[in-house]
Write a structure and sequence with these properties.
- The structure is a single chain.
- Helices cover about 35% and strands about 25% of the residues.
- It is of the alpha/beta class.
- The protein has 2 domains: about 5-65, Hypothetical PUA domain-like, domain 1 (Ribosomal Protein L25, Chain P), CATH 2.40.240.20; about 75-249, SPOUT methyltransferase, trefoil knot domain (Alpha/beta knot).
- Strand 7 (about 75-80), helix 2 (about 85-100) and strand 8 (about 105-110) form a beta-alpha-beta unit.
- Helix 2 runs parallel beside helix 7 (about 230-249).
- The chain is elongated.
- The two termini are about 25 Å apart.
Length: about 250
């Protein structure tokens, strides 16, 4: 099933941009009158009939619409520190999209080595991953922010949620006052009806003690992902898969 994307949809018709049009017409050799499938990136799938096979901007008539196509019954925000190797972060984003994530937030910790993040390439990767994995929604990528600022902003965001947000922090260290639980147990024990989850993953050097303390003061639960020592991008993907498995398997 080949999927295209369009951001230009109105009045029962849509227009593919130049890149999508060329792939549709030149590569796949679709012609006027052919049926194609198009997503809008916000959760909807459209069944369409091509009304123009212009490679600069193919147009189509919408003959069917399916909402919440390929979505999941939870909302997951992954706040993950950028890795030293950008390819690893891109790999995480691609695979997280295929499994199921809604928002990716690059966060900079006190121990972070990479403090610059350019979202353009990852956004393009996410479009491709959503189409490949048959999803109508494309995860959003937010601007880079410090861990402490994200925690403060996230606290404000959750004030209107009646506490129905599960906030987890994958943390390598623990003490008697803040024992860690497994992410599996944390998901099992979350409040009934809670389907909004935020997971923070630190840099290669982990969160600082000050960042961890601030997170726990703001409702984050310290969790572990098993006995293995995982790279940042592996830990992030393990967390995405744990959430997916809890709700979907």
């Amino acid at each position: 099933m080949e999927i295209f994307i369009s951001r230009n949809i109105e009045d029962g018709s849509l227009l593919l941009d130049e890149e999508e049009s060329r792939h549709c017409i030149r590569v796949l050799r679709h012609r006027k009158g052919d049926e194609i499938n198009v997503i809008d990136g916000n959760g909807c799938l459209y069944r369409c009939i091509l009304t123009s096979d212009n490679t600069d901007g193919a147009s189509a008539e919408i003959i069917g619409r399916e909402e919440n196509w390929g979505t999941h019954p939870y909302r997951l925000t992954m706040a993950v520190c950028p890795t030293k190797n950008t390819d690893r972060y891109e790999w995480f984003a691609e695979k997280a999209c295929e499994i199921g994530v809604d928002t990716i937030v690059p966060v900079v910790g006190e121990h972070s080595e990479r403090r610059i993040f350019k979202p353009a390439r990852i956004e393009k990767i996410l479009v491709s991953a959503a189409k490949q994995s048959l999803k109508g929604s494309i995860p959003s990528v937010e601007d880079i922010v410090t861990v402490k600022d994200f925690i403060a902003r996230d606290a404000d965001r959750t004030k209107d949620k009646d506490g129905k947000v599960l906030k987890l922090m994958a943390y390598c260290f623990e003490d008697e006052n803040h024992p860690r639980t497994s992410i599996k147990e944390a998901l099992k024990d979350m409040s009934e009806g809670c389907k909004d989850i935020t997971v923070m993953i630190g840099p290669e050097g982990d969160f600082s003690k000050e960042e961890a303390a601030l997170a726990m003061e703001n409702g984050y639960i310290p969790v572990h992902l098993g006995p293995s020592r995982l790279r940042t991008e592996t830990a992030a993907l393990a967390a995405v898969n744990a959430v997916y498995s809890h709700f979907m398997l």
